[in-house]
Specification:
Oligomer: single chain
Largest sheet: 4 strands, parallel
Radius of gyration: 21 Å
Number of strands: 10
Order of helices and strands: HEHHHEHEHEHEHHEHEHEHEE
Distance between the termini: 25 Å
CATH topology of the largest domain: Rossmann fold
CATH class of the largest domain: Alpha Beta
Strand order of the largest sheet: 2-1-3-4
Structural class: alpha/beta
Number of domains: 3
Low-confidence stretches: 349-363
Strand content: 15-25%
Number of helices: 12
Shape: globular
């Protein structure tokens, strides 16, 4: 008996397929209630790759101080952005999976698509169980993190490994590590920003307007230990600026979502917005290239808190540009990248070289 699939994978249930693509994003609480938010934060902040402190030291602090206070404040923030179908991250990630499934269907590719969250639901273990129950023997894991970080991409791989420890007859797996400089990703970002400017006008750079490319922050120590995230963010920002025709004085790469008292990657987004406001900058546009789907960090932290900071310190006009979400160019990129990474697996064959380089056909 075939197991019930997620809405995305169920769309392809009419195709008998032993190959699947599993999109993985960070996670979300089940509801904006303090109880559900606390459960989610407890799982998230207990990951040793997220908070790199000894458990004997961190767990008492987490459960005695952090969760009792942060759960309620975070719940209010989640409530301010919650959608009728769930959290923005879940809604957008699920739609990305649906659209990618349609992309494969339209091209006659018998590939099943599903999605999972690293923390919260739908879980990675449940997704793998569901796919295996539906006959899937090969899974391409695609974390939705363009820039590699041990606290994001590696945690997804950790969870996959944990799930496989409980499976005797394991599926074959492949992983996408990062795509921070992929030309298709950069072009999708460019299109997203340009689409916004086509509607709302381009900033007046001659008057000192600024663009911020805000990435999720990490402790500085992670870069010192060899994590490539910082340099990959800088590379993405530089490539996107070039694609948009921005000079070095017209944009900044910043880092948001600081937590705790250790030194973090700089410059900070909040501090930069305060600085630009104090300088009475007329307009600032903020875009978050490292987030492939809008979420609490982009909608609330940037769109509400960041806006308020900029305006309170003297800025005039604040613009938040939506993340890639379901942008067609991004779905095209995901589909093409998936086919490239599926190439050479048993049951796959290269298409003739007359077509686009890097495309593969499943037989």
């Amino acid at each position: 008996m075939r197991s019930k699939l997620s809405p995305a994978a169920a769309h392809n249930d009419k195709h008998a397929s032993d190959t699947a693509v599993l999109l993985i994003n960070l996670g979300t609480p089940d509801s904006p209630s303090p109880r559900d938010v606390r459960r989610y934060l407890a799982e998230f902040l207990s990951d040793p790759r997220v908070v790199e402190l000894p458990a004997w030291l961190w767990q008492p602090v987490l459960h005695g101080l952090v969760l009792p206070f942060r759960s309620r404040s975070s719940a209010r923030k989640y409530e301010s952005v919650w959608m009728s179908a769930g959290s923005p991250l879940k809604v957008h990630t699920e739609q990305q999976a649906r659209d990618l499934q349609s992309w494969f269907d339209e091209r006659g590719k018998p590939i099943m698509v599903d999605y999972a969250m690293r923390y919260g639901n739908p879980s990675i273990a449940a997704a793998i169980t569901r796919l295996r129950a539906n006959g899937v023997k090969r899974i391409l894991i695609m974390p939705m993190y363009p820039q590699y970080a041990a606290s994001t991409t590696a945690t997804a791989f950790d969870k996959i490994a944990a799930a496989l420890r409980k499976i005797r007859n394991q599926p074959a797996l492949r992983f996408v590590n990062h795509y921070h400089a992929d030309a298709r990703y950069i072009d999708a970002l460019r299109r997203q920003v340009q689409r916004y400017w086509d509607i709302h006008g381009r900033p007046d750079f001659a008057a000192g307007d600024q663009v911020l490319f805000s990435f999720h922050g990490l402790p500085l120590r992670t870069a010192e230990l060899g994590d490539p995230y910082y340099t990959q963010c800088l590379r993405t920002g530089s490539l996107l600026a070039d694609a948009l025709g921005l000079g070095p004085e017209q944009y900044r790469v910043t880092f948001q979502s600081r937590f705790g008292y250790q030194k973090w990657l700089e410059p900070g987004t909040a501090e930069t917005l305060a600085e630009l406001g104090y300088q009475q900058t007329s307009r600032v546009d903020v875009f978050c290239p490292g987030f492939t789907a809008d979420c609490i960090e982009t909608i609330e932290e940037i769109g509400i808190e960041g806006r308020d900071t900029f305006l309170e310190f003297g800025g005039t006009a604040f613009h938040r540009i939506d993340c890639l979400n379901e942008a067609p160019a991004f779905i095209d990129m995901l589909g093409e990248m998936a086919l490239e990474n599926l190439g050479g697996w048993p049951g796959t064959a290269r298409e003739p070289r007359g077509g686009e380089a890097g495309r593969f056909a499943l037989t």
